[in-house]
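Our consortium's second objective concerns turning raw sequence data into structural hypotheses that experimental partners can test. To show how far this objective has progressed, the report includes one record in full. It was chosen at random from the queue rather than selected for favorable results. The single chain below, 392 residues long, was entered without modification.
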Amino acid sequence: MANKQIDMRKAKQIFKLYGEGTSKRRISSQLGISRNTVTKYIDFFKRYRLTPYEVSAMTLEEIHRLFKSDGKPKSEKLKTLEGYFPQFDRELRRSGVTKSSRYEPKVNETFADFAEHYETAVLPTRAYRPRDKAIVENAVRIIYTRVFAPLRNSTFHSKADINDAILELLRVHNGVSFRGREYSRRSMFEEVERRELAPLPVKRYEIRSYAKGTVHKNSHIYLGKDKHYYSVPYRHIGKQVRIVYTDSFVEVYHRNERLAAHERQRQRYGYTTVAEHMPSHHRFVSEWSSGKFIAWAVQIGPHCKTYIIGILDKKQHPEQSYKSCLGILHLAKKVGDRRLENACKRALDYGAYNYNMVERILRNGWDDIEEDPGEHIEVPDHDNIRGEDYYK
């Protein structure tokens, strides 16, 4: 696999073009990807014996999980560690300094935000000065020797017990005088550092995540993480915005100006709306929305509901699927609810989520075909049937 994973959309396009008979050289030219990378991704899908149709039907998340699972088997120790700390691998890969510089190194945005919340500063070690890092590494070594090593053979039955043991060893460690000096870490803290400390903020820091979005015509932005919509003042319709969200709130910014702030909600396809954000003539409630299509599908049947939700989940933005949903649901006026429900059931079996598939099933009458492999079919007896004796 390529050293740096390409966008999953391009991975799908590679195999789609390859399935249509496009040469690897042509695919490389069209997508701006090296031929070696094109070959590796084609071989990857072939290794799993996937067809171009199956790959095109997969969501971006499914393909991403497939790539993540393609690798060396994890050890039992690693699996145990991931069970306790699910996100440790991703977090350890993040660098504290995103751009090194002798004079103004750029710090990771989340790290800088953390420092600002607690009114402190991040001072990266100097570039090409390995001795700076040695100071930190030496502090880790001392703690490892004085705290971890004495406890390595001990058994604890609760977090409180191990924390008490660690705290006692830390008291001893902080009371030991520095080598060649008459003061300890504890005495230096009491005499110099304590009076410089400021009180902690009232609210604990929450890790921030970032996303990009566009203010839609209904004056809302879409947060794909929760599949939820948040309102923005209508005068910003069409603008590209930055979404900042934590476990408890969502903020929307445009050119460093905060446009809106909301409590975070996790209701799928729901809307969080501030009345002042909407124009006086707004009609977004009565117009297209994911909730409206799902409620409409419920009236037709459970398979139709499942199929509509599948279409909404297929796209990165549900609004990209609204026309497909509208077209499918309008078919009920032509063929009736029962036939549309049966057609959705058959389309679910195929795993194909689009309007053309449902329309094709109805047009060919496949919705009325009963598939019962155990059903015995009587063959009429006439002179053209040779019978089993013919083949003896």
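The partners drew two points from this record. The longest helix spans residues 130-151. Residues 373-377, 384-392 have pLDDT under 50 and may be disordered. Both points have been shared with the crystallography group to help prioritize constructs.
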